[in-house]
UniProtKB/TrEMBL annotation, chain A:
Keyword terms: ATP-binding, Cytoplasm, DNA damage, DNA recombination, DNA repair, DNA-binding, Mitochondrion, Nucleotide-binding, Nucleus, Phosphoprotein
Name this polypeptide is given: DNA repair protein RAD51 homolog 3
MF annotations from Gene Ontology: ATP binding; ATP-dependent DNA damage sensor activity; DNA binding
PROSITE patterns linked to this entry: RECA_2
Nucleus keyword on record: yes
SMART domains: AAA
Similarity-based family: Belongs to the RecA family. RAD51 subfamily.
Record organism: Oryzias latipes
A GO BP annotation: meiotic DNA recombinase assembly
Positions of the RecA family profile domain: 46-233
Alphabetized InterPro entries for the sequence: AAA+_ATPase, DNA_recomb/repair_RecA-like, HR_Repair_Mediator, P-loop_NTPase, Rad51_C, RecA_ATP-bd
UniProtKB/TrEMBL annotation, chain B:
CDD domains: XRCC3
Top-rank taxon: Eukaryota
Similarity comment: Belongs to the RecA family. RAD51 subfamily.
Underlying gene: XRCC3
Record keyword DNA damage present: yes
GO cellular component labels: cytoplasm; Rad51C-XRCC3 complex; replication fork
Source organism per UniProt: Oryzias latipes (Japanese rice fish)
GO biological process: double-strand break repair via synthesis-dependent strand annealing; resolution of mitotic recombination intermediates; t-circle formation; telomere maintenance via recombination
Compartment(s) where it occurs, according to its Swiss-Prot or TrEMBL record: Nucleus; Cytoplasm
InterPro entries according to UniProt: DNA_recomb/repair_RecA-like, P-loop_NTPase, Rad51_C, RecA_ATP-bd, XRCC3-like_C
Residue ranges occupied by any RecA family profile domain in the UniProt entry: 44-225
Keyword Isomerase listed: no
The name this protein goes by in its record: DNA repair protein
GO MF annotations, alphabetized: ATP binding; ATP-dependent DNA damage sensor activity; DNA binding
């Protein structure tokens, strides 16, 4: 694909990021190739990000979930990890005319918690939201094709029953990504579930997890996709007091670029960004409604406490 | 697949590209099917109804067929009543909300309330007035509830690993009820043995998961509750002061968590009266948090519709 300089300048960055043509034109990361920081910054801008539909969380994450990075979402059962994943799977498909990425998603479900009914709810809410927003002709045209069927057909689902199947799927994933270049989001929900059962040998578990972490990180950078991994929480005893910490141990904590912990504080649901290279540690409130992941009702209360 | 790539290379003595080929071949062998698109997902939304339109509405059709559903509540809240009712409703054909199979009912606490079951069977025509009565008469309910008593963990293990697969494979059973999980794990372990307890819990729940997935069978586990004496942070707010027992290790394994509790009020209907109870969805992947009021009548558990 050859372009003249003016036409390159005309192109909007996010148009570069999605679709095969954009990928081919932009130089891919090659091992051993040195790049300057400026180039890297430009590439990161081109990657774009996925909105979470919670303006506070988007703001805290500087625009949304970063593409090309690994994000880990931890939380106790029932706090909304799967909901956030489903919301992201729908949000990545937002048409480009609305500033979205218009991409596809592969969802690896290890717990059996992918429920189509719920996706349909969230997708319906998103479609409704954007059909109200559509003003100019181009946006109205895209709304013709941005509907329930197209959203569902852009979600690829894999059900992994144990860690062996999960490993196998990840090994085959590069081939899949080659066939489906529009896939820009990989969700693994959850990584803890298969690894916490059937694996008695802790050192083997650590090594396997480490290998898995390397695999997803290389996938995220090489294919320029966002990776979202959910993790469970576990209790750790410290000074004869119990604390809730993310499962799978200390070493696994290095796998992700960004780590978000979802938790209950009193009657509020709070998302805390505890590890991130670009955002300060913040905690924001959110809620899970029947339409999906949203801001809490009182947006003026923003907690900022360092952890 | 259970070894890191480096180990495979060392064990087989193959070069890197060959190892990659080997792993790819192994991965293809492990894979059940290629990634499906959302439209093609044949999940079909199969649910097991609970024989009450109000409760089915609350649960959007009923219990999901793949995974563990937990029902917790204080003693006398009506957990066993609902479990009995579901083990009858599973026997209806699919178009009437059942799965056309029997139920395996594993008791760990008490002896099986057989008289109550008989009473519920005889009242089925009242409960399911929408189902043709000829169909109800044709179903032999008590023949299809398989009751097991497991007084300790070992016998539970034997039951789940030997007898349950046989019944499931023969198609006789499409529902597993464990009443209750808490009793065994609470009595056999002391507070200091929580590591061992968690390990056993994981073994137990992974067995249930396996059975549930292999035979697309719902699993209903009844759980007791803890008095919420300790003030713990980061806990999900519940509308009552109790939390389900067995802690986080168990909660991580549960797909749908329901709680039932007794309210102070009573409702009456004709010559019967019943304490009002509240069934609450604490979490579920397909539901928002919601609750509804239920009452236990002679024929079974029914939701109290809002207008009553």
């Amino acid at each position: 694909m050859f372009l003249t300089l003016p036409s390159i300048l005309e192109k909007w960055p996010c148009q570069w990021s999605s679709g095969a043509s954009g990928r081919r034109a932009s130089p891919s990361f090659n091992a051993g190739e040195a790049v300057t920081a400026l180039e890297l910054l430009q590439r990161e801008r081109e990657c774009g990000s996925i909105t979470t539909f919670s303006s506070q969380l988007d703001h805290a994450l500087k625009g949304g979930l970063p593409v090309g990075k690994v994000t880990e979402i931890c939380g106790a059962p029932g706090v909304g990890k799967t909901h956030l994943c489903l919301q992201l799977s729908v949000d990545i498909q937002i048409p480009r005319s609305f500033g979205g990425l218009e991409a596809q998603v592969i969802f690896m479900d290890t717990e059996g918690s992918f429920v189509l009914q719920r996706v349909v709810d969230i997708a319906a809410a998103v479609v409704r939201h954007f059909s109200l927003l559509a003003v100019d002709g181009e946006q109205k045209d895209t709304m013709q094709t941005f509907n329930m069927e197209s959203i569902l057909s852009n979600i690829f689902l894999v059900r992994c029953h144990d860690y062996v199947e999960l490993q196998a799927e990840l090994l085959l994933l590069p081939d899949f990504l080659r066939d489906k270049p529009r896939v820009r989001l990989l969700v693994i929900d959850s990584v803890a579930f298969p690894f916490r059962q059937h694996l008695d040998d802790l050192s083997q578990r650590t090594r396997l997890l480490q290998g898995l972490a390397q695999q997803v990180i290389s996938m995220a950078t090489r294919h320029n996709i966002a990776v979202v991994i959910t993790n469970q929480m576990t209790t750790r005893l410290q000074d004869s007091q119990s604390h809730l910490v993310p499962a799978l141990g200390e070493i696994w904590g290095h796998a992700s670029t960004t780590r978000i912990i979802l938790q209950w504080e009193g009657s509020q649901q709070v998302a805390a960004i505890v590890k991130s290279p670009c955002c300060i540690d913040t905690a924001i409130q959110y809620q899970i409604t029947s339409e999906g992941f949203r801001d809490a009702n009182q947006p003026e209360i923003t907690l900022t406490n360092r952890r | 697949m259970s070894l890191p790539a480096v180990d495979v290379q060392r064990l087989t003595g193959l070069a890197h590209p060959e190892v990659h080929q080997l792993l790819t071949a192994a991965a293809h062998a492990c894979r059940r099917h290629a990634p499906l698109s959302g439209e093609a997902v044949c999940e079909s939304g199969l649910r097991l109804g609970v024989s009450c339109p109000v409760l089915d509405g609350l649960l959007r059709g009923g219990l999901p067929v793949g995974g563990i559903t937990e029902l917790s509540g204080q003693s006398g809240a009506g957990k066993t009543q609902l479990a009995l009712q579901i083990s009858l409703s599973v026997q209806y054909p699919v178009e009437h909300g059942g799965l056309g199979g029997g139920a395996l009912y594993i008791c760990t606490e008490d002896s099986f309330p057989i008289r109550r079951l008989q009473q519920m069977i005889s009242e089925q025509a009242n409960l399911r007035s929408e189902v043709p009565s000829s169909l109800i008469r044709g179903l032999r309910f008590s023949d299809h509830v398989y009751i097991e008593h497991a007084a300790d963990l070992d016998s539970l293990q034997v039951c789940l690993s030997r007898r349950a697969p046989v019944l499931l494979a023969a198609g006789l059973v499409r529902l597993i009820v464990v009443d209750s999980v808490a009793a065994l794990f609470r009595s056999e372990f002391q507070a200091e043995d929580w590591m061992e307890r968690n390990k056993q819990l994981l073994t137990f729940s992974s067995m249930l998961h396996q059975l549930s997935q292999e035979f697309t069978t719902p699993v209903l586990c009844i759980n007791q509750v803890n008095e919420d004496a300790m003030i713990e942070k980061n806990k999900q707010p519940l509308s009552s002061s109790v939390t389900p027992a067995l802690g986080l290790a168990w909660a991580n394994q549960v797909l749908v968590r329901l709680m039932i509790r007794r309210l102070q009020k009573t409702v009456s209907r004709g010559d019967q009266s019943s304490a009002l109870r509240q069934l609450e969805v604490v979490f579920a992947p397909h539901l928002a948090r919601s609750k509804c009021e239920v009452a236990v009548w002679r024929e079974g558990v029914r939701g109290v519709a809002a207008f009553e």
